[in-house]
User: Fold this.
Amino acid sequence: MIDTLNEPREIDAAEIDRAASAANEPGWVRESRRAAFERYAAMPQPTERTPGWRRADLTGIDFSPAPMGASAFAVEAAAADLERGVVACSLSEALAMHERVVRGALERVHRAQTLGKFSALAESAWREGAFVYVPDGVELSSPIHLTSSAGSYPRLLAIVGKNARASIAETHRCGSRLSAGVTDLILEDGAHLTYAHVQECGERTVALSHQRARLARDAKLVTLNFGIGGRFARADIEVELLGPGAESDMLGLVFAERSQQFDYHTVQGHRAPSTRSDLLFKSALGGSAHAVYTGVIIIEKFAQKSDAYQANRNLILSDGARADTEPMLEIEANDVRCTHGATVGPIDEEQLFYLQSRGLDASDAARLVVEGFFAEVLQKVGDERLTGSLQEKVAPHLGRDGGA
Amino acid sequence: MAVKQEMLVDKDYKYGFRDETQNYSFKSRKGIDHDIVEQISVMKKEPKWMRDARHRALDIFFAKPMPPWANLELLGQINFDDIFYYMRASDVEGKTWEEVPEDIKRTFDRLGVPEAERKFLGGVTAQYDSEVVYHSMRRDLEAQGVLFSDMDSGLREHEDIVRKYFGTVIPAADNKFSALNTSVWSGGSFVWVPAGVHVSVPLQAYFRINAESMGQFERTLIIAEPGSFVHYIEGCTAPTYSSNSLHSAVVELVAMEGAHIRYTTIQNWYKNIFNLVTKRAVAHKNSHVEWVDGNLGSKLTMKYPSVYLVGEGARGDVLSVAYASAGMHQDAGSKMVHAAPNTTSLITSKSVSKGGGRTTYRGLVKVYEGCDGVKSNVRCDALLMDEDSRSDTYPTMEIDAKNVRIEHEATVSKVGEEQLFYVMSRGLTEVEATTMIVNGFFEPFVKELPMEYAVELNRLIALEMEGSVG
Assistant:
């Protein structure tokens, strides 16, 4: 709502400078915003010929920048955890109170960044944002929930300290025309993080998200991307395994209807020996929806003894739905185990037949199969506090468009 | 140690000799332009439509950029101005073995062509440089009404058939190299199998490159009329040269209703050859097209045999193996385009990278809207023999239909320690054990080959595996 009121204000370098001054931000933040905006401006608007965008149907999709309305997150964290030194607040606040920590983390992120056009925009134009810091050795008693319902540039920075344990859910419900977000997850040695990214934006929203995770030695990350909203939703999810023994499980679930488009890009970067990654992305597609999955496993020369898996499963529920899948491997080390698989198909006739033979009617049987298709992914997250409500979000849609 | 082994392999490279043929009756100058194209066409006394097609294709070749996704570092090494685009060994074609000139015969002796002649009892088209110099056709093939000749003769003697199909499966504008081939093609095979005819022996053709910086641009067209069957085998091996050579073929297959074409290739170009080949088949109703494709040599191979399944019930299979050692990049794969319901495809790809070699699988499975009942399975396995080698897998699936079953699976790994340990516990050395495991890895491919090829392939693998351990 706030966006629409501010709509006339064009975003440009001067505007970004003004906002940074008004917020009284340190000079290095202003510099980094300015540099990000330059990168944004230097990259062309995506068309169907732009590498990485070719499979999308961009007709009628408006990528022009939205104004710099604040993207505040509602933050829920247990008081007991905050007393133990956990920080959960807006990124602006964190800049004021914990500048050294924030600066250190962002410098690490920026050194290695693989920024796309819209993450550059988000990095130049974010306001408020969110920040989570879990000190070394602390185990969160309950998950931290971060919910963004307005604004166009949600920005999250989360740091999980050595041997700390945390669960974080980031939920997007904004209804603005454009939402371009950036999430950075930093896992120190031995840190464990379970992270859910829930995208339930409005029907007209172009929802873009860039998620980058950096894992140090023996860190373990489980991520779930749950996509149900938006008109055109794209997520770039990159996990960099930088220390020996680091492990990543990447999960994805998309339920698409109408003419929704979901375009998911993943990177499993094995940059250290003895690292492990697993990926399971599933989509169920009704209406004339279109899902694209493009993912790459990279195993660098020195990342020997790595183990990587990647699976993309697409369930086609209606005649007009489409799925493109491009799972890729780039392997430069030989002492590795690397496997991937992809499937596209309708609901299995045999499963339907089996359920119907047990007395279910056709639509109940189909609903059950789709629920089961999703349940496999949700179970793998391993934290019901994050996933408990997600199955229910899909349920109301199944009666309408799911089934057969 | 490794260097020494490499030299040993080079010295023993079976067909790495160089023949002293100097009596070329025609030698075009290096480089390519409309004059050269005109000259080729005039020399061949071609009809105007073919000459026009060549000139149009040349403009397309000039205009088209290199494919942006390719290994441009290697492709950039091709100097198109430093290549001969047309050459022929003699003006007269030998109809029997005795008529073939002696020096050329010596080359083929070492290649085993006469033996193949005896053993296969099939037609042999041996291409020497850019022109077919020897070509025999068994009498019963003629009796069956099968047309099997070099492409130049095919155009002269059966212009109506050639004109009907030439460039329809692979238009000149398909890619930069199909455009180049269309403008300067020479030689290759023309095969037409009448309806219902089952050709019981494989048709064979040997291709060679035998002049320094000599390009070879053969053009093959195979038409299988309804209900017919034909197996075509193309094997190539080239002598050692120091400067880069370009091989860029176009192969078009048309399988009419219920027809079955199997096309087997083994390429063992020497490590200085760019092998940039476009191969595609159109499969009509209930027909079956199989590509059996072995890539063992060349500096850079780019080859993605495709089947366009345009008739209901058509089936396409690709079985391919690739081997890449130092300085080599095998960029191979397959394309299956399902444009009709109830069509099926199966792609099996196996690759081995060794000593810094690089293998890439690049593929596409496309299913158009409304094509229900499509089934496709893609399976890629890659072996990495050492830490310097590299393997990439780039499959793409574009699925626009609902009731289809599309599966892709790929693995990349090294030779299993357990496998190795097991075989060595039976008394084999590590080299022998590795060779055996790699041979076993290629087995599904090898067993699809005629005996001579299978034996030779196993020997080549053994040779290549020397020095792969320790």
